[in-house]
UniProtKB/TrEMBL annotation:
This is RRM domain-containing protein. It is found in: Cytoplasm; Nucleus, Nucleolus. It holds the Pfam family DSRM_RDM1. Keywords: Cytoplasm, DNA-binding, Nucleus, RNA-binding. One of its GO terms (biological process) is double-strand break repair. Residues 40-123 form the RRM domain. One of its GO terms (cellular component) is cytoplasm. InterPro entries: DSRM_RDM1 (IPR057652), Rad52_Rad59_Rad22_sf (IPR042525), RBD_domain_sf (IPR035979), RDM1 (IPR040224), RDM1_RRM (IPR034200), RRM_dom (IPR000504). Its main location: cytoplasm. The keyword Nucleus applies. One of its GO terms (molecular function) is RNA binding.
Length: 302
């Protein structure tokens, strides 16, 4: 497959069971990562001050989601030096859908009597801007459901293991008079399957937490939470390998980037979950949304 650039005419080879057919068509590439490109962000301003932030948020979301899947909508009051009112930031996963939304909505009142101004962000990020983060578990589900439908994908647990004892060699001796620190750690391998596209890929997730003491009323519920976190992280890791190719006619193709761990036998998961092989950046309790980490220092052509 040739390199694909979102929003441009590209040539790619669609491999089917029957044949290999060369096609020339517009393709929009959707990744399961936080969108950071300026051509996916709309800046909406001249919103009247008569509305509440909740009403504006709901109105903006309902209007702009008609053009494609939204990653985020954010409503902010105007700065003190400007006239009273609000502005909104709308971020899409697709540059083509953001461009279409801008063309259709700019200069229209939509939910108010006076026209709104809608422009694509022109903020230029430096070339060394860090690689976009993976989506949260809930965002991955929302994006997959939007493009593939609720029956267009499924998950299967390959293994879910307690790997707490893997770090016994590094465990510190308890301090006299203090409760012993206990580290609970779970590793999970999950396979995400796209049945209508004959594609699948696997992801690895690890979750751990250290606590003082090992009372059953504390440890038992914590084990359940860590198992869920490990499963969620494995799903996110699997979706990181997935590309959605949205064709100009609305059809969606799925491509999975295969890795070594994806071809291991189901009955031999030991080669995947090893402490030394884990990317510890995946570790951390809870499913924290990434919205607040997005740089909203935007500029537009007025």
């Amino acid at each position: 497959m040739q390199h694909c650039v979102a929003g441009q005419k590209v040539s790619f080879y669609l491999v089917t069971v029957a044949s290999i057919t060369a096609m020339d068509i517009e393709v929009d590439i959707i990744e399961f990562r936080v969108p950071t490109e300026n051509n996916k962000t709309l800046f909406v301003w001249d919103i009247q001050a008569a509305f509440s932030e909740a009403f504006i948020y709901e109105s903006v979301w309902n209007i702009f989601c008609q053009f494609g899947a939204l990653y985020l909508v954010k409503v902010c009051p105007n700065a003190g030096v400007a006239k009273p009112g609000f502005y909104a930031l709308v971020k899409y996963f697709s540059a083509a859908q953001a461009s279409k939304a801008q063309r259709v909505t700019h200069g229209r009142g939509l939910f108010q009597s006076s026209p709104l101004k809608v422009q694509l962000s022109t903020k230029q990020y430096p070339h060394f801007f860090p690689k976009a983060k993976p989506l949260s578990h809930s965002k991955c589900q929302d994006l997959a459901n939007h493009y593939l439908g609720f029956n267009g994908w499924s998950t299967r647990i390959i293994t879910l293991k307690d790997i707490s004892n893997c770090d016994d060699a590094n465990r510190l001796s308890p301090v006299p008079g203090h409760l012993e620190e206990v580290t609970l750690k779970y590793g999970c391998i999950i396979e995400v399957t796209f049945p209508h596209h004959a594609q699948s890929c696997r992801g690895v997730g690890v979750a751990e937490e250290t606590m003082r003491g090992n009372a059953p009323d504390v440890v038992v519920p914590k084990r359940g939470k860590l198992q869920k976190w490990a499963r969620d992280k494995a799903v996110v890791n699997a979706f990181e390998k997935v590309l959605l190719m949205v064709l100009g006619n609305g059809k969606v193709l799925v491509e999975c980037r295969m890795e070594r761990d994806d071809v291991l036998q189901d009955h031999d998961p030991e080669g995947v979950i090893k402490v030394n092989d884990i990317h510890w950046s995946l570790v951390g309790p809870g499913n924290q949304e990434e919205d607040e980490d997005i740089p909203w220092d935007l500029s537009v052509n007025m």
